[in-house]
Amino acid sequence: MSSQTNTHSLLASNVIDAIRTRRTVREFTGEPVPRDVIETMLEAARWAPNHRQTEPWRFFVLEKDGETRRQVAQLIADWTFENVKNPTPERRIQSAEQARTEILESPAFMYVYAVPGPNEEVTRENYAATCCAVQNMSLAAHALGVAVGWSTGKPVKPENLAEMLGADPSWDVVGALYIGYPSQEPSAHRKPVEDVTTWL
Who's near 10: CB < 8 A, 6+ residues apart? Predict the structure, then answer.
């Protein structure tokens, strides 16, 4: 076997292992995530599949202890307080504070948006490409020992979020990313491939 074949086999093994072992995590140690790690993740993101070359992804990194992070955390807390399901006064307060604290304490925190296209087809492709960009970021992070929690829940719900971030209101929010060094390594299971595949 040639050295080139050995290299390709090792690379394939590393990639597949990263795909299998990457997990969504939102419980982190207090260790800061260096800026160069975030930049490496962003570099991986911009090489996501994008056959029309629209490069539709837009990223907003909210600095730890920064004013924008504090404002967004409060915005999400307010939204949570008003919208928590089956609320009691105590649950409203607890849920709102939990949402606010999670954003403030996340070692790194980012929003990802997709720019819509000139028609529905391109808009859908742009959203899909941006989702691929987030997956690229998550895999790059995992390779560097960092975990990502991708949320499409409370952190993206307020209507005036885009305005607060400086994003165009017409853009589609793809998610909020909690980023940090994981405090534990969760496990997961998937159905066998033959359960979800049809050979024709």
Answer: none
